[in-house]
Design goal:
With 658 residues, the protein is an alpha+beta fold. Among the domains are: 173 residues, no CATH class; 88 residues, Immunoglobulins (Immunoglobulin-like), CATH 2.60.40; 129 residues. The chain starts with a helix and ends with a strand. Helix 2 runs antiparallel to helix 3 and helix 5 crosses helix 6. It is globular, with a radius of gyration of 32 Å.
């Protein structure tokens, strides 16, 4: 009985401690808010000085509103993080959606090497972005004070000491600008070391609603589910069906893709959030089960001009082919054709496209973000990773970084010579919270206490080096981890062409040919690309998968239309699916004439290892773009595209380093 009583006492004490902690936290946050509001109310400005002060406050308010609009319009960033691989042929989506001359950050997207990525901003990161924006722009407000001299004012200010401090609330932004300002008119004057401005804007509220929409999509994949419904419902998208027709079912992949774009654009425009006055069971198909505040409108958008990736199988070049059961099997046909003809088809789709989510309040303030919609093998994408930067101050908050308990020794070594690297920055990340720990000493070592975390990530960064994070648990004291940093090597490049038919080499034809090389390091996540207009490429040591293209960009090339006799193997479906056999399908298809300004005349995929010795001593590297054939027909186009990885490399010339 005594032991049970002791346990009960401990539980009660624990509850009391938690309650006290909650009360202290609540009072602390409210006191902070009251401090700002009370300070704002207590600011007393002489009547003679008010014109100048009112101008400064209105100018600061305008700057805050401008910054808030930048944040809202770009997905919570004033400057969107730079993607590892620039937007281009090999990274069509990148980490932001281009809309005219502006960009909106993806909160979920696929990296260039098809990894799941998130970049959800936090309230803290938005505050930091806004503070930096104000530091740069409030100086213009101060400079304009010189205009008041004609009205008899004497104004002294220091534009080099402007420091901004903002706190984003649901319906307003508390703004404190530290900018020493001395204002005088005649015998009346006042010295202000700071300017307090409370700006009414629903940035915090709209951001929180955007988070709810993002969480809903991440949990339920409602955008993917509705996309799959479109694939099933619309006849323009061949999906899975058995049709009783004697006509051979053949679709153009490009036409299907164009129709798919238009269908997605039309249907996404109908999606919205629920009306608060509607009972949940009565909400329509296009309504997302989230109820916003009164006056807030939500829209989901895809424009046909935006990127859209679609891979379909089975296919043959640009064709999707139905399985005509009765027409292509004489034994079945002689019985079944007496009654009907049957076509069966089942296509598997991989689809990626961006969806823009926009939220607008009654005052017209907008918060929007982009989200990549991903269909993988006819199924919604699954993302189970950590949402980076999620929450007001990371998932663990400031206390995580301040509570350093266990010592960890981190050694930063140059991978080319295993020498210690001085001045490398070491940080530690866990559950969306990232903490800067310090810099390495002259031996390349940092020994310091780290916050406690299971499977956190140690990052070591130094200019001129590439580094991948290491997974390290800090629940045990006195641990050690060595980090190998790969030095970047800038290598001069020149480009030539190799004929894969003869092995002969030649220079690129100026103005008519260009070369593209994509490098993907198989030993780490580093990737880069170089085109023939560039003079150098930056590489790190490792084994690479290299994809090389030769583009003919001279005068327009006309590909003459032709009738082609195609044969493909298509799995049986419908009533014959249980037999599990395939059948060769042969048919005639007519291609129309087409004219193109640039076309691929060669391509190849190969592996190549670049070592420290190669890169460190290189003065120049020659890269060979492969020539396969002159393009004159659709068969030629399909041959180059479909055989990149299987092409014979016997006559190919690998990179030459001198």
């Amino acid at each position: 009985m005594q032991k049970r009583g002791q346990v009960t006492i401990y539980i009660i004490v624990g509850i009391v401690i938690l309650a006290v902690f909650g009360i202290v936290f609540f009072l602390g946050s409210n006191l902070t808010k009251q401090d700002f509001q009370s300070e704002l109310k207590n600011v007393k400005i002489p009547e003679q000085i008010k014109p100048v002060k009112e101008y400064v406050d209105s100018c600061i308010e305008a700057s805050v509103l401008d910054g808030a609009q930048f944040l809202g319009g770009s997905g919570g960033y004033i400057d969107i993080p730079v993607d590892d691989l620039p937007r281009g042929v090999f990274n069509e989506f990148s980490n932001s959606l281009e809309i005219g001359s502006s960009e909106v950050a993806y909160w979920y997207y696929k990296s260039s090497n098809n990894l799941d990525k998130t970049q959800v901003p936090s309230i803290q990161s938005m505050e930091e972005d806004l503070e930096e924006y104000l530091n740069e722009n409030v100086v213009y407000c101060l400079r304009d004070l010189d205009n008041f001299e004609d009205e008899g004012f004497e104004v002294d200010y220091d534009i080099f000491d402007v420091i901004s401090d903002v706190s984003i609330k649901d319906t307003h932004i508390e703004t404190r600008i530290y900018a020493p300002t001395d204002i005088r008119k005649g015998e009346v004057g006042i010295y202000l070391d700071q300017h307090l401005v409370d700006v009414d804007v629903n940035l915090g509220k709209m951001y929180n609603l955007a988070l709810e929409v993002f969480e809903k999509e991440n949990e339920e994949n409602f955008l993917e589910e509705k996309t799959i419904d479109m694939m099933v419902v619309y006849d323009e998208i061949p999906f899975s069906n058995t049709e009783f027709t004697c006509e051979r079912l053949v679709w153009s992949k490009e036409e299907v893709k164009d129709d798919f774009r238009e269908i997605v654009s039309f249907n996404l425009g109908g999606i919205g959030l629920s009306d608060s006055d509607v009972v949940a069971n009565d909400r329509g198909y296009f309504e997302v089960d989230l109820v916003p505040d009164k006056g807030v409108e939500a829209s989901f958008e895809y424009m046909p001009s935006w990127p859209f990736q679609m891979v379909v199988s089975p296919s043959k070049g640009n064709l999707l082919i139905g399985d005509s059961i009765t027409q292509d099997n004489p034994e079945i046909a002689k019985y079944m054709n007496l009654f009907f003809c049957m076509n069966n088809y089942h296509f598997v789709y991989d689809v990626k496209y961006p969806a823009l989510v926009s939220l607008v309040d009654e005052e017209g303030f907008m918060f929007q973000f982009a989200n990549l919609v991903v269909i993988d093998k006819n199924s919604p994408r699954e993302f189970v990773g950590v949402i980076d930067n999620y929450g007001d101050e990371g998932l663990l908050g400031e206390e995580f970084c301040e509570n350093r308990v266990n010592e960890l020794e981190v050694a930063a070594l140059d991978a080319s010579n295993y020498q210690g690297i001085y001045g490398a920055d070491v940080s530690y990340s866990c559950m969306g919270s990232s903490c800067y720990i310090g810099g390495t000493d002259s031996n390349g070592v940092l020994k310091d206490n780290f916050p406690v975390c299971l499977n956190g990530q140690v990052y070591v960064e130094k200019e001129g080096y590439y580094s991948s994070p290491a997974i390290v648990s800090t629940d045990v004291a006195n641990s050690r981890v060595g980090m190998l940093l790969e030095p970047y090597y800038d290598v001069n490049v020149r480009f030539r062409v190799v004929d894969l038919n003869t092995g002969g080499g030649r220079n690129l034809v100026p103005g008519e040919e260009s070369a593209i090389f994509q490098f993907r390091n198989l030993d780490n996540d580093y990737s880069t690309m170089v085109v023939s207009e560039m003079d150098e490429v930056t590489l790190v040591n490792g084994n690479y998968e290299v994809t090389a293209y030769l583009m003919d960009e001279g005068e327009s090339v006309t590909i003459e239309g032709q009738k082609v006799f195609e044969c493909v193997d298509v799995p049986r479906g419908g009533v014959l699916g249980v037999l599990g056999f395939e059948q060769e399908q042969c048919f005639e298809y007519e291609y129309e004439d087409s004219e193109v300004d640039g076309i691929m005349s060669g391509g190849i995929v190969f592996e190549y290892e670049f070592t420290h010795n190669d890169l460190g001593g290189a003065s120049e590297m020659t890269l060979y773009a492969p020539f396969v054939k002159e393009i004159s027909s659709y068969d030629d186009v399909f041959d180059i595209i479909n055989n990149l990885e299987s092409r014979n490399v016997e006559n190919y010339r690998y990179p030459e380093i001198i």
